[in-house]
Specification:
- By secondary structure, the protein is α+β, with helices and mostly antiparallel strands.
- It has one domain (29-164).
- Helices cover 17% and strands 39% of the residues.
- It contains two helices and 13 strands.
- It has helices at 3-23, 35-41; strands spanning 27-32, 47-53, 56-57, 80-85, 88-94, 105-111, 114-119, 122-125, 129-132, 140-142, 147-150, 153-156, 161-164.
- The strands form four sheets. A five-stranded antiparallel beta sheet has the order 1-2-5-6-13, with no helix packed on it. It has a four-stranded antiparallel beta sheet with strand order 3-4-7-12, with no helix packed on it.
- Strand 9 and strand 10 (140-142) form a beta hairpin.
- The longest helix is centred in the first third of the chain and has 21 residues, at 3-23.
- The termini are far apart.
- The model is unreliable at 17-24 (pLDDT under 50).
């Protein structure tokens, strides 16, 4: 394969990956098969359909070097992760709701799709040495090291709707 062919193949792969990335950001719909339970027990089983979330890792913020510090901040970077919790629908027959056959209905629990954002914990570490000190013959001074933890975050607004039909 020539160099021109290799570059063309690489560009094709990059274009395909770029086109597939937005489609994979949602979730995978899944129906839970409960038909065997209905046949074995002889009762109406609920119908369950949901989506399996596909986490997508975001861009990591690069460490920043501050003047006077020997180590970058944060030393252990925070990793953002985003996903969409799939639409979940659980429905089940509700017989004799008010004591008569005419009131048979179906109960449902519906949780619409929602976006969920998470950030992993991070760490900030201060060096046990200072920058070189001219008053100390150019040698760094020893100081107490500093340690900090950046807490994890989880943001989202899941909701659910309960209904009878």
């Amino acid at each position: 394969m020539t160099a021109r062919g290799s570059i063309a193949a690489l560009m094709t792969c990059m274009a395909a990956a770029g086109a597939a990335a937005p489609a994979a950001a949602g979730g995978v719909p899944v129906g839970v098969p409960l038909d065997a339970v209905e046949g074995a027990l002889g009762v109406d089983t609920p119908r369950v359909g949901t989506g399996v979330p596909l986490p997508v890792v975001g861009a990591i913020e690069p460490p920043v070097h501050h003047q006077g510090d020997m180590l970058p901040t944060p030393l252990l970077p925070v990793i953002p992760i985003g996903t969409e919790l799939g639409d979940t629908l659980i429905s089940s027959p509700v017989p004799n709701l008010l004591g008569s056959k005419e009131t048979d209905g179906e109960g449902s629990l519906d949780a619409p799709a929602t976006t969920l954002q998470a950030r992993s914990p991070g760490a900030v570490l201060g060096s046990p040495l200072t920058m070189p000190d001219a008053a100390n013959s150019g040698l760094p001074n020893v100081v107490a090291p500093k340690l900090g933890v950046i807490g994890p975050e989880l943001t989202g607004a899941p909701k659910a709707l309960l209904g009878l039909r």
